[in-house]
Design goal:
CATH topology: UDP-N-acetylmuramoyl-L-alanine:D-glutamate ligase
Number of domains: 1
Number of strands: 14
CATH superfamily: Ribokinase
Shape: globular
CATH class: Alpha Beta
Helix content: 25-40%
Order of helices and strands: EEEHEHEEEEHEHEEHHEEEHHH
Structural class: alpha/beta
CATH architecture: 3-Layer(aba) Sandwich
Strand content: 15-25%
Largest sheet: 10 strands, mixed
Radius of gyration: 19 Å
């Protein structure tokens, strides 16, 4: 079986500066990097690197960024024939300034991501018969997300939604179409309307999300662990003890690990552990897709942590 990821594909242009500029000011930076990103692309790479056949469905522009983004996905093991090239828009771009204290300013231009529509959903639908799961996020138009969730739901394919970036107004019709929703603390708080800042409030938030119709609610608490709730039980997975360097894309790594485990037939409890492990491992390296673990490193980490045992 394959996993489909339907979502955003961005290029991140990151400049490091001594301090953030004020209006009208020109500053000299001291470092620049150009890295592939977008939550959809991140999650596709996260799944593919764990050895699961993965299809990315989305859009890029006709510019050189688009060519680079498709190549990077392909080079990471992601099937890219359903990434369309939109001749009317630029590729999605995030322009990021980071100062020496770690504070940042970000300008995101959705470009082709903002034009994802029913045509893309139809291409996605052709892949559903041979798929175990569809991964969704909120960096493409919400109407396309709902339509994709409907198509997967009708096909009996598991829908895993990462409700990021955080939104307070999510269509009521989306929740019953979702098998697993995976917000972090901020996103969970936006969805339920109260602060989520630890295990107990996460359990309350998960209960609200179940009432709205999702079958499973997973609240990612970063270094404080993970809460998972289904109708019959709620359980807590403690965090893996790692030295976190950069948490960018750790949430995407979590979803990749979760989906990979479920595709392999593991239990929900085991899958949440895999997700937590993938997220923890990603946090030990800088960057987004550059931090996402390959299967060999991931398996080694699981053995080190006693999650899986060496054969023989």
């Amino acid at each position: 079986m394959t996993i489909i990821v339907f979502g955003s594909i961005n290029i991140d242009l990151v400049a490091t500066v001594p301090r953030l500029p004020v209006a009208g000011e020109t500053l000299l930076g001291h470092n620049f990097v150009q890295v592939p990103g977008g939550k959809g692309a991140n999650q596709a790479v996260a799944v593919a690197r764990l050895g699961i056949p993965t299809h990315m469905v989305g859009r890029v522009g006709t510019d050189s960024f688009g060519t680079e983004l498709i190549y990077n996905l392909f080079n990471s093991g992601v099937e890219t024939e359903n990434v369309s090239i939109d001749e009317t828009a630029s590729s999605g771009v995030a322009m990021i300034a980071v100062d020496d204290k770690g504070e940042n300013q970000i300008i995101v231009v959705p470009g082709a991501n903002g034009r994802v529509n029913q045509e893309d959903v139809e291409r996605l639908s052709d892949l559903l018969p041979n798929s175990s799961a569809l991964l969704l996020q909120f960096e493409i138009p919400i109407a396309a997300v709902v339509a994709a969730a409907k198509a997967a739901h009708q096909a009996g394919v598991q829908v895993i939604l990462d409700p990021a970036p955080a939104q307070s107004h999510v269509p009521d019709e989306l929740y019953p179409l979702v098998d697993i929703i995976t917000p972090n603390e901020v996103e969970a708080g936006q969805l339920v309307g109260f602060s989520v800042d630890g295990e107990e409030s996460a359990k309350k938030a998960a209960a609200v999300l179940l009432q709205r119709g999702v079958k499973c609610a997973i609240v990612k608490l970063g270094a404080k662990g993970v809460v998972c709730a289904i109708a019959k039980e709620t359980f807590f997975i403690p965090p893996f003890p790692v030295h976190a360097v950069d948490t960018v894309a750790a949430g995407d790594a979590f979803n990749g690990g979760l989906a990979a485990a479920l595709d392999q037939g593991l239990s929900l409890h085991q899958a949440v552990v895999w997700g937590a492990a993938a997220g923890a491992l990603a946090a030990t390296k800088p960057g987004a897709q550059t931090s996402l673990p390959h299967k060999s490193a991931f398996d080694a980490f699981l053995r080190e942590q006693g999650v899986i045992k060496d054969e023989g």
